[in-house]
Fold this protein.
Amino acid sequence: MSSAVRVRFAPSPTGYLHIGGARTALFNWLFARHHAGKFILRVEDTDKSRNTEEAAAAIYDGLHWLGLSWDEGPHVGGDFGPYFQSERDSIYEKYLRQLQDAGHVFEDNGALRFRSPREHVIVEDLVCGKIDFDLTNPGTHPDMTIRRPDGSWIFHFVNVVDDIEMKVSHVIRGEDHLSNTPKHIELYRALGAKLPFFAHIPLIMNKDGSKMSKRDQGASVDFYIKRGYRPEAVRNYLSLLGWSPKDNREKMTIEVTTKIFDLNNVVRSHATFDPEKLHWLNGEYARELGDNEFYELGVAALKSAGVKIEGFPEGFLRAALQTCKGKINIFDELPSYCGFYFTDDVTYTPEGVAKHFTAENMPRLRAVRDALAALQNFDASELETALKAIATNLGVKVGALVHPTRLAVTGSNVGPSLYHLLEVLGQPKVLARIDRALSHQ
RNA sequence: GGCGCAUUCGUCUAGUGGCUAGGACACAGCCCUCUCAAGGCUGGUGCACGGGUUCGAUCCCCGUAUGCGCUGCCA
């Protein structure tokens, strides 16, 4: 039926992958996969052809991390290369000549400009609908420059030429290009080329309504990689920005999203990036990690946070991390959540001290200490039994023992299950820490 | 300024010419419970404004406002 779907993501190598760019790449990728088409990566390095590979590395890394593999482009090649604009000069020269021969180009102070036909151009956008642009007024729509005096090319021209040359069937890009589209259409027509389908997707904004820019924390995919986010969570969250399955599904595998994604269910209005929701979604994915996977990722997170885990046996590490599984949403929360396992020098939170190291609690902590010292099997169930027995004896709720004990041993009011954490830590350390707390005052 | 696009809870969104306008995140309360999470239950907040069209508009039309984008020899 329809001819081959070919879409592309065409970032310029700036040294990082913008979250909005990642979302554009994702939509292109999803569209390609949905229609069994090709997803092309093209590096638009017209200006700075210096450290392209280096700067582009962040883009490759980000796309790989998100699971967005390309069928044509850097490293994988393809029939329509090269995939760096800096290497396509002869192609642009050829198209320029064609334009010149047809009388569409004039010179202006050394720069080359395209003479607009001065007509109305109707953009038929798959997302935004039919839009009529009036380009008849040179005052408001000047003839676009296509080549600078120094010989370098302007985006509009090379972008269109490459899309023609690479046989791109659908141009799916950010809405910031919607107003540029009529100009591009003029170029297609002047070159006698068949128009692709256009689809402009809504922009992603900051909380305050501003465009996310590289100075904003979280505007770079790298930010999420470094913090230990799950790529499937970021990918899933991004898919929900400007697109909806139109039912109440939110957490979806990439397979499901690919199956139901299409341009007709892309939303038209701008979306605000909500870190809270990503945080939640990441937790959803983190909770379904297998024990081993959680362990590997946990170790990596602790290491990169500088937690000294070297001297500890793997069994201890595994047991410690196991008590954190299901409790954290993002791996960068891990160091503060379970750092107490790896240092005897726990610092008590001031609020905790005020609330739990009270005059009436200290004798209770003492009682806990004595009972724990007498325990033969220092495991979670024995510990639970012991704590509950003491509570009964003292006529208090277990909470009255749990809180001060937790604070004494971990320094915090929140953390893994107390009984399990005590078991992992082991009797000697637990007793030592309680003793230290008892002498705290 | 000109041109373009947009406007449903704080946020992401569903939705229809007549519904108690639905879900999710966040928030609050309750339950569960060794804390925190998770899970369960409950709750509050929304159709930007003004005109039409219509028996009836959140939905259709026109304005206004606001936001965003484009208006480069940036991409």
